Amino acid sequence: MNNNSKNRFFDAYQMRAHSVRWTVRILLIIYTIVVLYPLLWNLMSSFKTTHEILISRTALPQGFAYDNYIRAFTAANMGAFMFNSVFVVVLSLALLLIFSVPLSYAMARYKFFGARALELLFAICLFIQGVYIIIPLYVLMFNLNMLDNLWALSLVYASTGIPFSAFLLAGYMRTISPSYEEAAKIDGCSNFQILLRIIVPMAKPGIITVSMLNAMGFWNEYPMALVMLRSPSNHTVPIGVANLFEVQRRATDFGALYAALMMVLVPTIIIYLIGQRYLIRGIGAGGLKE
Q1: How many C-alpha atoms does 271 have within 13 Å on its Cβ side?
Q2: What is the pTM of this model?
Q3: Burial of 236 by CB count in 10 Å (0-12 exposed, 13-18 middle, 19+ buried)?
Q4: Distance in Å from the first CA to the final CA of the chain
Q5: Alpha helical stretches, state H, the chain
Q6: pLDDT higher than 70, residue 275
């Protein structure tokens, strides 16, 4: 192949690569617009009066109806619902990490009888969602007298999140070189000290990733909370929003409804913005094995 042919080949390759890059960029821009439009539309509507929403759902607000948020927080009791959800999410994450971090470390490092079967069991449990076993869970919680209890709901959330968390963290911990642990053992560290002082700090991206994904799942979970919680004072945000939708639809107070939806969306956005730099690292490394 002469130089002219090589130049034509490389020019064609660069043009093709350039076209592919721009095609991907255009598709990503379209996807971003599709994702952001409902969020921006909801934000706009939360500052409109009900009259403005009924006249035009797409027009910009003529003013900023801040009282929508006040009514959503006080009259619709969203403040109490959000407190319950924050309590459940924080407690669920604490229980989840207490159990899943040591379990994932044992799966990643120790070879014992049934280890492969245990890992296979967790892999199978990834496909079993909580709603699929909601009736046995309800019967179990009823027999234990643990219905309508935020502490018990947190325990249910944590237990259903353990398979995914342990499976992902075990994959991440396998990417950590065992030489760090060997050096710590030489210095006299116990297995628990190695886990706490060596593995946990090095596995921080994976732990943050697991915490983020589970926190957003717990925050938005609706079916189990609806079945397990009876008292309105114990309702979490998803139940509160569903009830608010029915009440405000009859009362035609759509401004407060959209304000309540924004109050629900903001915490998940904040969680993502805080931990997004760890998210891809944690998921990517969690799929690697030595």
Answers
A1: 21
A2: 0.79
A3: buried
A4: 42
A5: 3-46, 50-55, 67-73, 78-109, 115-125, 134-143, 150-173, 179-186, 191-194, 200-202, 204-220, 223-228, 237-251, 254-286
A6: no
